[in-house]
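Lab notebook page, bench 4
Experiment: in silico fold of construct C2
Operator: M.H.
Input chain length: 301 residues
Purpose: comparison with the prior construct
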Amino acid sequence: MKIRKFTFDDLPKLVKLLNETHKDSYEFTPYTEEDLGSWIRDEHLEILIAEENGEFLGSTAYEDSHWGEEIVWLAVSKNANQKLVEDALVSEIEKYVKGEKVFTTVDADSPKIDEWKRRGYTPEGGLYHMVVNINGLKPLPEVPKGVILRSLRVGEEKKLVEAVNKSFGWERLKIGVINRWKKENPPFNEDWVHVAEINSKIVSVVVSRPNKEYNEFYHAKRGYLGPAATLPEYRGKNLASALTCRAMNFLFEKGMDSAALYTTEQNVASVALLTKLGFRIGHYWKFLRKNISHGKDCLKG
């Protein structure tokens, strides 16, 4: 067996492997060569391939993003040496880690968690996929006098990006994101972005989008909500709740019958807010993190 770097000639086999490995996963939608290729290019994924005598055995991928350094996937064909191949791939992909920690995400009830623990990974928090049925318009929670709730206007992308990035404390969005969302999620446009304005300043944001891939594959009518982003000095004023309700009403008027979003287990305030609005936990993943000792050479090839 040898482990080497991915080339785009591997893309058809990689798509087949990932689809076969994850076909029974929660709400899995199959990859296509086009969307997987775009993801690899856009996110600059580092990908390793394990093979033996020309046979494609498995793959793993690494990404360094604003979420941290992550092992994005570990996919190995079922065979007698599956665990050996998985361990070898993880050992090699860890050599790309530049900081002190790397993490991966695993179903909370998966037996794979024990295998990651054996490799030195420790469960630290988790991720919730929260869903809600939308069967009518909801009254908006009361907000302070002077707050205007509205949709984003054409030409306000810079204000949107600044508000979101200041709210999160890091660069979550970049200029050009509106056009990307329009391309990836038709019929998305500025109307789908819900903002709270005070004295002509955007102070809170909730983005709604059609849940395009899920809807196409499962013949559903579900919307997706991004996390509420509120400037620190304007929190505690019901702005996130009001905008989330406004977004849910907007989706209902667009013909959607449900909505979904992601939030971390650690974000207790967000989970409480969403539960109050009728959301429930649809799925739960655990984060597993490992402290990485340095002094290793990065994989070359």
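Observations: The domain at 2-126+287-291 is CATH 3.40.630.30 (Aminopeptidase). The longest helix spans residues 239-253.
Next step: discuss at group meeting.
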